[in-house]
Specification:
The two termini are 22 Å apart. The chain contains 14 helices and 8 strands. The longest helix is centred in the last third of the chain and has 23 residues, at 275-297. It has helices at 18-28, 44-47, 49-57, 70-84, 89-95, 101-115, 120-129, 146-151, 187-198, 227-236, 238-244, 275-297, 301-306, 308-313; strands at residues 2-3, 8-10, 62-67, 134-135, 140-141, 166-167, 170-171, 180-183. The chain folds into 2 domains: 2-271, no CATH class; 273-318, no CATH class. It has a 4-stranded mixed beta sheet with strand order 1-2-3-8, covered by helices on one side. A two-stranded antiparallel ribbon has the order 4-5. The chain has a two-stranded antiparallel sheet with strand order 6-7. It is globular and about 50 Å long. A hairpin with a 4-residue loop joins strand 4 and strand 5 (140-141).
């Protein structure tokens, strides 16, 4: 998500209150998406490369994200995966064989190890060519696991701090870390600090998808883990645990992120852009304009089909 009004870029980490943050900025800050939405039909690992490009186009914009306790985030991934099966009957039958948290952790481990650090076209090619490959105790085929690939990756895969040279497979123009990292566990307080830094509207952040988080826990999230499941999750998300400093025993260990001030940022100098950069920005803005238009007409399949020639012309997925 990018907001030119407030000169900021949100680097989304899946299952870290991203839906709440996106909707808030889209509704109150004149922001728009910096990556093509899901109805473009390709993996998010392909579409997310636009985030790095927009960071390269606007290196002086403030970048921020929110991170989460890896143990709790994995349970959110687990619950959402099975919630998605209610919308996709074919997937429901496949994931029914991985019903426990431990079995789902084994599935995610196998998929992420095999998929590796692939992004962009390489990720889509691997997904398409190996769609019949089976994973996990239930032998679920890869072609049913696109959502898992997009959401179950470690948080550090999405953080510029951990990827100074290439982020999402795209070369960065600089290795600057994020300017602000908030914590889902302290969402209200940290979002208040972010509003103070950017001078954002004083509107409360609404919690989206609440029925699939707190309401479904039915008790402490630590109760969902046995020793084997915990070891699996710690193996998958070792980098996340090291980055966040989270522990398991207390269940709510404060994430160790840098402390930032609450003062509004100083005015940024106006930079004169080179002709090549201007053309690149115009090309990207054309894509952003198309995305905004498609958000408005996505309920009309006929109009969506009219955009396909333009997408093919620019090499975008259909």
């Amino acid at each position: 998500m990018i907001s030119h009004r407030y000169h900021c870029i949100y680097v989304k980490v899946p299952k870290c209150a991203s839906t709440s943050i996106l909707h808030w900025f889209l509704n109150y800050c004149g922001a728009h998406r910096s990556m093509k939405p899901w109805w473009y039909g390709s993996l998010a690992t392909d579409r997310v490369q636009a985030v790095t490009r927009v960071m390269n186009f606007y290196p002086d914009y403030l970048t921020f994200t929110f991170v989460r306790n890896p143990y709790e985030r994995f349970l959110s991934i687990y619950r959402s995966a099975f919630w998605n099966t209610s919308q996709f009957p074919d997937l429901r039958d496949k994931l029914a064989t991985c019903g426990s948290v431990r079995e789902f952790a084994e599935l995610c481990r196998d998929v992420l190890v095999d998929f590796g650090p692939l992004w962009g076209r390489e990720a889509c090619d691997f997904f398409r060519k190996n769609g019949e490959r089976e994973y996990g105790p239930g032998k679920v085929r890869l072609k049913y696991l696109g959502w898992v690939i997009d959401h179950a990756r470690p948080q550090t895969d999405f953080l510029p701090d951990c990827n100074p040279e290439r982020l999402f497979g795209v070369k960065r123009v600089n290795g600057d870390p994020l300017a602000f990292i908030g914590r889902v566990e302290a969402m209200e307080a940290d979002f208040h600090r972010l509003r103070g830094m950017l001078g954002l509207p004083g509107v409360a952040l609404l919690h989206r998808n609440p029925s699939r988080s707190v309401a479904e826990r039915g008790g402490p999230w630590t109760a969902y883990y046995d020793d084997a499941t915990r070891r699996l999750v710690e193996d998958i998300y070792a980098a996340d645990l090291a980055f966040t400093g989270c522990g398991f025993d207390d269940g709510r260990t404060t994430i160790a992120v840098p402390a930032f001030g609450t003062e509004a940022p100083a005015p940024r100098p106006v930079r004169r852009r080179r002709a090549g950069t201007i053309l690149a920005c115009a090309w990207f803005n054309l894509s952003s304009f198309e995305v905004r238009m498609e958000e408005k007409i996505r309920c009309f399949p006929t109009l969506r089909r009219l955009l396909r020639p333009l997408k093919r012309l620019r090499g975008l997925p259909r």
